[in-house]
User: What shape does this take?
Amino acid sequence: MSTTRKRVYGYLAQFKNASALYKAAEKVRDAGIKKWDCYSPYPIHGLDGAMGMKRSILPWFVFFGGMTGTATAFTLAYTTQVVIYPTVVQGKPANIFTVPAYFPIMFELTVLFSGFTVLFGLLSLIKLPRLNHPLFASNQFHRATDDGFFIAIEARDPNFSTTATRELLEAAGGANIELVEEED
Amino acid sequence: MASTSQHAPDVSLKGPKLPVLEREKLILNERSYHWITERICGVLENKQPLLWWLLFIPSALIAAIGVGGGLFYLVSTGVGVWGNTNRVMWGWPIVNFVFWIGIGHAGTLISAILFLTRQNWRTSINRAAEAMTIFAVMCAGIFPAFHVGRVWMAWFLAPVPNANAIWQNFKSPLLWDVFAVSTYFTISLIFWFLGMVPDLATIRDRCKPGIRRYIYGVLSLGWRGGNRQWSHYEMAYLLLAALSTPLVLSVHSVVSFDFATSVVPGWHTTIFPPYFVAGAIFGGFAMVLTIMVPARFIYGLQDLITMKHIDNMAKIILLTGTIVGYAYLMELFVAFYSGAIYEMDAFKFRMAGPYWWAYASMMICNVVAPQVFWKKACRENLWVVMIVSMFVNVGMWFERFVIIVTTLARMWLPGDWKTYSPSAADYILFIGTIGFFLALFLLFLRFLPCINIAEVKWAKRESDPHHDDHVEHPDPGVTKVPAYQHELNAANS
Assistant: This one.
């Protein structure tokens, strides 16, 4: 529809391989761009540094998630076995000295809670699920999950300009540079 | 580059050169990224070969009759239809439970432990092995759930408040087992799904607009492959691997506690946890080979699952099989050395009693058969690999039969002594779970990417952004020694 208003998402440029993407990422980082990302079909090791990114904070989430699991299992076992319904079975008393027998379940719930924290922590950090995205409007972007290496610089970056950003991507060795627009 | 000459090392280096063995290639024929995508997605995008249907239809029928019909008959009549007699009350259901849960160990081992130890060859086989884990645990779960007798009371296993105000016994290995197996299933499922998200996005991007694209789009959660996603994703994968490694070792240890903490001759041994874990890895790898060798051939995945992969798996089978053999012999030695007459009698009964054939099958299949893998020619012959894997599958089932049935048939009181024989309902349900497992695996091949596309691409040499640094600055101090490539020697690959 020609009447639809369009909003510029940003520039998308293709690079020929992982090494080219890595070198270009260093240039974009040094140009002071903040709202941008490198797209590749597989994780490229070392690209975090080339993009000036920090280490993921996910382990902290998982640490506290796991500790919650340990505490849950301990509370569950101790409350039900010692406080609410103490039962002497296998000649074992029901008191604080029985706690070693709860270790297997404390371990399992630690892992279970940590696993769920990994899943939901990851999804919140990478802001998924999000089924649509302006980049999907590009007709070359589908290659990012096949054999394409891309850099996208977003228009909301304060340093974005339709000419200078294009020149930056060209200077970094980008090909098929495309202005991606989303329907408003 | 202008600065090349400044960094160029001194090419006139004197003295002996260091021989450096090149790594054997994990992806043959220098396949491109696009080729990898095409080939793996092709498995589920192209029409399935006739063989798929020839395998799927019988498997699905066996699953429907065996699991569907078998369980309907069981529940509507009562667990008396099983062969579980007084004394051997665990019978086949628990034999089958331990068998399937053991099969389910290779997947997480390949995904987690080989990931932490940086064994890059895992990338070609981890997805299928993880799928196998999930399906095997599903098969395993059927047995204890129905073995409780009244399956509609199975929720009593969970520690939730009930009308009797009685809580589960948290000191019991049986409750530990409930937690261990359900945690294992959940974590394996999360691991499998998260690992698949980028590959589902690959499939989504290859689909034409429509319902299929929508479904894969939803499953892939809108994955875009940006490094800001990959960075967290890699961390999540590492964390899951680190969590799964102790988990996978704990699950079969806990299963073995069901036996080891009881005061029964033949069960009450400290060797059980490591022995069970080694056995589980052993049986799991055999099942991976049983399934992947034909799948590799049918779908033309020889360049991705190479003879090197098969060679490595054969070596793991040899190693773990030998550990299992050591455990069998150590059990006998400890029984002898303990001087405990009941312990000695239990093992005499196992070896020379009415179940001697089960013990002999276990020994031949699990200890003797894998020894052929000492020879390279046997590891390179796919027929030998397949036959040994089948032997191991059978042998591991017999191991559980020996442990459970021969022990329970001859406990403390002579008045309790009884021999066990399974009923038709036992056979039907067990064969049904084999069909169920195969049918699920075939559906997996049909609808989901059977090899981890992103990780296989990552394992290519040029995926390292610094791979060409050495092209510009060759190291004059080393000579490259070409690796032994299996494909050049293997006749039937």
Summary: Chain A has a mean pLDDT of 90. Chain A has two domains: 6-51+131-183, 58-125.
